Amino acid sequence: KAQTETSNESLVEHDINIIEKFLLVQETVQSTDIEPETLQEQTADLKEETQKDNIAINEEALSSEKRDLEDLTENIFAKSPN
């Protein structure tokens, strides 16, 4: 019986620790709440930045592909018998 009581006390202590951690997390979440408008603005900004990055990457890739095509064209004309 004494062992069961100790085991129960241990479980209660464990439960209390879990509840305390939950409350701490809940408090942290509430204190760091972000307004929906702010979140929407940040999301819009990120989308805009991503689009700009993608455009820059695409322009760079197109420029590289254009050079490759120009080189290929030069090689074809250089190898042609005329």
TrEMBL record:
Domain of life here?
Eukaryota
Q: What is this protein called?
A: 20601_t:CDS:1
